Amino acid sequence: VQLVESGGGSVLAGASLRLSCAASGSTIENYCMGWFRAPPGKRREGVAAIERDGRTNYAESAKGRFTISKDNAKNTLYLQLNSVKTEDTAMYYCASPSYGYWGQGTQVTVS
After folding, report:
1. Quick one: pLDDT at residue 20?
2. Model pLDDT, residue 85
3. Can you tell me the distance from the alpha carbon of 86 to that of 13, in angstroms, rounded to the nearest whole number?
4. Distance between CA atoms of 111 and 87, rounded to whole angstroms?
5. pLDDT-derived band of residue 97, with 50, 70 and 90 as boundaries?
């Protein structure tokens, strides 16, 4: 599976962003998918995950502000970021880590 993220950028605190992850080579419907992020100088951390049946899980830092979703027909994973904070600055990756599938990342910078 090839994963390509997009939608990152530089925004002001309080703004909203939607990250997308386009998959090819296989369908994301078959996998548990997640969003991860690597803040500057810190270890990569999980942000949100969505199971094959659509159940979702969130890190505490994401609850109430971020929403993970997927469109199986478009074979695309999304992460809606609302009310972003400076501490949300990071490289964001989509992945199916159990299978070792990772995208190249998209940078989100909040000032």
Report:
1. 98
2. 97
3. 6
4. 9
5. confident
